[in-house]
Design brief:
Layout lengths: L10 H10 L49 H22 L18 H7 L18 E3 L5 E4 L5 E4 L38 H11 L18 H18 L2 H20 L5 H24 L15 H18 L12 H13 L8 H14 L20 H4 L22 H17 L5 H12 L1 H12 L9 H16 L9 H7 L3 H14 L2 H10 L6
Antiparallel strand pairs: 1-2, 2-3
């Protein structure tokens, strides 16, 4: 260092030598520093940042030892990218993005532009067309596709913005949506009234919901109300079915779906029509079996048959009605008559319907009669001839009936026909339902009338004429007899309630009143007099 010329000394050493005015030996001793390696411009081998004299830079790059600017710039870029993000780093980039070329929109006619109004036009990113007729929805209905070039465009979505008739700054709404709705059950609020409960029950079965424009349309009228009432009535009839009958109906519907698989391809509207026939047939069968007095001699006694047999018969009759024109195909949209004929031929050629048994043919005939029945009222009871001998079950009665005489003493038990015994048992069973409000004398007089030959003769004559008593089943006559006896023996304020039994037998109020009045005229006066004498206690 002492032999070095002043031009080769560092700037700090030269300044110290000039300040002291002499060589370095004359200066005070300085702090010993580690000699620093010097690099010349001839050393051109790039090194990693950790071996660079600055010790900084981009770890993925190499720098020459003589380059002190590039590592610092790269280190600053990394610092900015780390703490300020990529956006701020790219803002300083002077590279300009290519300007998209303007797309010339096709000139539309004046009518189309006037109809479109100020609605924004959708532009295809591929070919640049903006004609609405060139766009169609995809199969999944999630985006629009250009028909010309096949480019998938904007997605189809429904805006979740609140629908207002004014701008957002003009909205004068003073209430907002609830941010939180607590979960409650039926015990957190008072029970609904009878009117509210009926409205909630009918709302579940309502098929049509009124549109705002229907109130001003005179062509609609009361059609919507009639349809909703019919749907509510059918829902109540379905709820009246027992659990066993409802399970049987579901089994029939499941077997119907199995037959659909054998007839594929099958139009969806035809399947729907066949599915609707299942509850219609089954509900009418159950209603008829509950009202029919013929017992095992009922003409529609296939309720206990298997579900596959009933489903096959319903499908056979339905396809036959569609193919023969008994049902108008206008009710089935998009279904042609050749399609129905092909389905009927495939069904007839199947193994289940090719050779029907006698039971299958009988059930098909009965189902055809049920489907041809029009109206909402149930099918009337079957007219079956009484058997020659009463069954043991019908001859057994309650122990309280032992002292009741059914016939005069001159007659025998063999002279009592089956209908009289059935009416006697029906009166006894129905009286148990009203025994809490009806006195015992009503029961006794009703049984005396059943055993009275004159009353039975008058009743047979009235049932043979055209009147309210024509073709009424025996249980219904027993109910009307109890009602007539109650009106004869009791004042109007003490009459028992027959509402529950009337709903059970599905008797209208007008029919109930007329039939009760007709039966009162058939009661012999002597029977009422004898009943009054029996009511005396005989103590005086």
């Amino acid at each position: 260092m002492a032999d070095a010329s002043p031009s080769l000394l560092p700037s700090a050493a030269r300044a110290a030598q000039q300040a002291h005015g002499g060589p370095p030996e004359a200066r005070p001793p300085a702090r010993i520093r580690r000699p620093r390696k010097r690099y010349s411009y001839m050393d051109q081998e790039p090194v990693e940042p950790r071996f660079h004299p600055l010790g900084c830079g981009n770890p993925a790059k190499r720098y020459r030892p003589c380059d002190w600017v590039t590592p610092i710039v790269d280190a600053m870029d990394l610092f900015r990218m780390k703490y300020y993000g990529m956006e701020m780093h790219t803002q300083d980039n002077d590279t300009e993005l290519p300007v998209p070329e303007p797309v010339e929109e096709p000139v539309a006619d004046a009518t189309a532009s006037a109809s479109a109004g100020s609605a924004p036009r959708v532009t295809c990113p591929g070919c640049g067309t903006c004609d609405p007729s060139n766009f169609d929805a995809t199969t999944d209905k999630d985006a629009m596709v250009c028909i010309a070039c096949g480019m998938v465009g904007a997605s189809i979505h429904i805006s979740q913005h609140r629908e207002k008739n004014c701008a957002e700054d003009e909205d004068k709404t003073t209430h907002a949506e609830r941010p939180y709705e607590p979960s409650t059950d039926e015990f957190d609020r008072p029970p609904p009234s009878a009117t509210e409960f009926r409205q909630l029950r009918d709302a579940k079965s309502r098929n049509l919901k009124s549109a705002p424009t229907w109130n001003r349309d005179p062509r609609v009228g009361f059609a919507q109300e009639r349809v909703n009432r019919e749907a509510a009535r059918e829902a109540r009839q379905h709820d009246e079915l027992s659990t066993r009958d409802q399970s049987k109906q579901r089994q029939i519907a499941e077997k119907m779906e199995d037959y659909f698989l054998e007839l594929e391809p099958m139009h969806q509207n035809v399947k729907r029509f066949c599915r609707v026939s299942v509850p219609n047939v089954w509900k009418r069968v159950v209603q008829h079996c509950d009202l029919c007095s013929a017992g095992k001699r009922c003409e529609f006694a296939f309720k206990q048959k298997g579900a596959p047999l009933i489903a096959e018969s319903i499908l056979s009759v339905t396809l036959h009605n569609l193919s023969t024109g008994f049902v108008d195909l206008q009710h089935l949209e998009g279904v042609e008559h050749p399609h129905i004929l092909a389905l009927n031929d495939r069904f007839c050629a199947s193994k289940n319907a090719s050779n029907p048994s006698a039971a299958q043919r009988a059930i098909r005939t009965q189902i055809a009669r049920i489907l041809s029945h029009s109206g909402t009222h149930p099918i009337p009871s079957c007219s079956a001839d009484p058997s020659l001998r009463a069954s043991p079950r019908s001859s057994v009665s309650d122990p309280s009936m032992e002292e009741v005489r059914l016939q005069p003493s001159s007659s025998t038990e063999d002279a009592v026909d089956q209908e009289t015994i059935q009416m006697r048992d029906s009166v006894d069973k129905l009286y148990r339902s009203i025994s809490a409000t009806a006195p015992k004398k009503v029961h006794r007089l009703a049984l005396d009338l059943v055993a009275n030959p004159q009353f039975r003769t008058n009743l047979d004559a009235a049932r043979g004429e055209e009147g309210n008593l024509l073709r009424l089943p025996v249980p219904t006559l027993a109910l009307l007899t109890l009602a007539a006896v109650s009106h004869l023996l009791l004042p109007s304020g003490d009459l028992p309630s027959f509402d529950a039994l009337q709903r059970r037998f599905k008797i209208a109020d007008a029919t109930m009143a007329d039939a009760t009045a007709a039966l009162q005229t058939l009661v012999p006066p002597s029977a009422v007099t004898d009943s009054d004498e029996l009511d005396q206690d005989l103590l005086f």
